[in-house]
Amino acid sequence: MNTLKENISTRDLMAFVALIRTGSFTAAAGMLNITQSAVSKRVAELEQKLAVRLLDRSTRRLELTAEGRAFVISAEAILQQFEQSVGQLRSLAQGSTGELRLCSASNMSTQIVAPVVGGFMETNPRVRLSLYDCQTRKQMIEHIANGSSDVGLIGGLPNQDHELSGEFTLTEIAAVREPMIVCFAHGHPLEKFDRITWDQVAAHPRIGLRSKFGVGHVTGAIEQLGPLGDRYVMSVTMINTAVALAGAGVGVAIFPCYVVRGGRPNISWRPIEGTEHDYTFNYVHLRGKALSGASRVFGEHLRAFLARLPEAT
After folding, report:
1. Residues near 118 by Cβ (< 8 Å), separated by ≥ 6?
2. What letter would DSSP give residue 7?
3. Are residues 201 and 268 in the same domain?
4. pLDDT tens for residues 101-115?
5. Distance between CA atoms of residues 148 and 155, nearest Å
């Protein structure tokens, strides 16, 4: 049962504790950067709200009553706990503590997320980071919907329809302008060129990505810019499978540049002329749910990493 006549504020407690610590109204006023009369008023209001006398006042010195001696211990503990709580809240908001549960397609995990994790953990060692690899967009959405992930990382063309239901929304993390690339095995005839034309790509059998899987829809849109024809040796579902097949010499494969950002030692690749395009990276999260501080800070690390274009190998 609440027996207080009025709510007690932290300002009241701070004035009382400062007065006891310093021993005078003048010193307490200096500590709190307020006037002496303000300190006196707050302490008097505190006593009124508690309906208890905390101080015996005389012309020579201040003395705590028995109730005051008991209460000052509690008041100091309350203020200390309050300061700790505020500090913890600020750390969470700034992203230096807390938890980040992120999900993404496996190729994006290896090529974009993994290279960023080391630097993020070094500067934010108190953040607990969990990463879930997803094989399909549907699986990613399920992770977010059931609460096992806070955000998902996806890429795509600007204004692309990601086919999300109304309960989800996108927050842009980074926008880059980069070329499409063609990947092939070490020693492939295309390796001697610095940049590749569409005609050169069309001269070699290709490994395709099925539409609606991975970046198949993006690749399909960009391929329309060039006369590639239908010379497919096979089509696959996953980007990593296409990369492995290209590295094994089965054919060449076309991807957005981000596919090689984290390094692909088993393949060579070159940019394709005339394919520069805007590409965005976004967080997917529940609509109306604010991004955590850790999510925002990790997004800043992602943005810095994506601002650097990789060098062809």
Report:
1. none
2. P
3. yes
4. 999 988 888 889 999
5. 21
